[in-house]
């Protein structure tokens, strides 16, 4: 009987934890991977601790196709960040300063942005 109670408690805790987790669509995951690569580049050198944790949690359950696309996107973003072209460097800086901010803040930042966004209903 105690075994059933313990299993039920563990399942309830796991369900509560996963209910609070951010669910990202594949396109959002790919955008976050790109931002992580740009922000972690020698051009930007931003703190990527929060986005790294978010991506680590989000990686599970992704199809092999999406995981391969993420690897490709990470390599492409890193290449862009290493570019010696000043226009490309400016684009990278602008992207990190604007579109990437929600991802760089990690899970809490994504939750706050979604809560502030107008409903699509």
Describe this structure in words.
The protein is mainly α and 121 residues long. It has one domain. The protein contains seven helices and no strands. It has helices at 2-20, 26-39, 49-59, 64-81, 86-97, 101-104, 106-116. α2 runs antiparallel to α3 (49-59) and α2 (26-39) runs parallel beside α4. The radius of gyration is 18 Å and the shape is globular. The protein starts with a helix and ends in a 5-residue tail after the last helix.
Short key terms for the protein model shown above:
mainly alpha; 121 residues
Counting DSSP H or I runs of 4 or more residues, the number of helices is: 7
Main sheet? none
Mean pLDDT: 85
Any idea what the shape is? globular
Could you tell me the radius of gyration in angstroms? 18 Å
Helix content: over 70%
What is the N-to-C succession of helices and strands?
Answer: HHHHHHH
Total number of strands: 0
Query: How many distinct folded domains?
Result: 1
Structural class category: mainly alpha
β-strand percent reads: under 5%
Distance between the termini: 45 Å
Q: Which regions are unreliable across 5 or more consecutive residues at pLDDT < 50?
A: 8-19
List the helices and strands and how they pair.
Blueprint: H1 2-20, H2 26-39, H3 49-59, H4 64-81, H5 86-97, H6 101-104, H7 106-116
């Amino acid at each position: 009987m105690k075994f059933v109670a313990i299993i039920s408690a563990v399942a309830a805790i796991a369900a509560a934890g996963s209910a609070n987790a951010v669910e990202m669509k594949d396109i959002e995951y790919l955008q976050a991977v790109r931002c992580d690569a740009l922000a972690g580049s020698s051009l930007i050198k931003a703190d990527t601790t929060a986005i790294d944790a978010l991506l680590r949690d989000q990686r599970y359950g992704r199809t092999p196709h999406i995981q391969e696309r993420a690897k490709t996107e990470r390599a492409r973003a890193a290449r862009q960040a290493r570019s010696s072209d000043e226009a490309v460097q400016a684009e990278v800086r602008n992207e990190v300063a604007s579109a990437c901010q929600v991802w760089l803040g990690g899970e809490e930042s994504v939750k706050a942005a979604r809560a502030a966004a107008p409903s699509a209903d």
